[in-house]
Design a protein that fits this description.
Layout lengths: L4 E3 L6 E3 L12 H16 L22
Antiparallel strand pairs: 1-2
The structure holds zinc ion.
Zinc ion (ZN) binds next to loops.
Length: 66
């Protein structure tokens, strides 16, 4: 019977929905982790608080904007 394939949510490559693809619907562990990273980042992003250097200057910037 036909093998069901899905597209990897991360890189869009076709992935066979079989036991040969342990990370399905992702094509690989890397894509699975990548997707989780994107998801986690989206959850962390707060509008108006996207300054990347905030991480390095948290202790000596009094009254920094939210
Ligand atoms: Zn992939």
């Amino acid at each position: 019977m036909a093998v069901l394939t899905v597209n990897c949510p991360s890189c869009r490559r076709p992935v066979e929905w079989t036991e040969a693809s342990p990370y399905r619907p992702f094509c690989s562990l890397r894509c699975k982790q990548q997707d989780f990273c994107d998801w986690a980042n989206e959850r962390h992003i707060v509008p108006g608080d996207a300054e990347e250097d905030d991480f390095f200057s948290e202790s000596d910037v009094p009254g920094r904007p939210q």
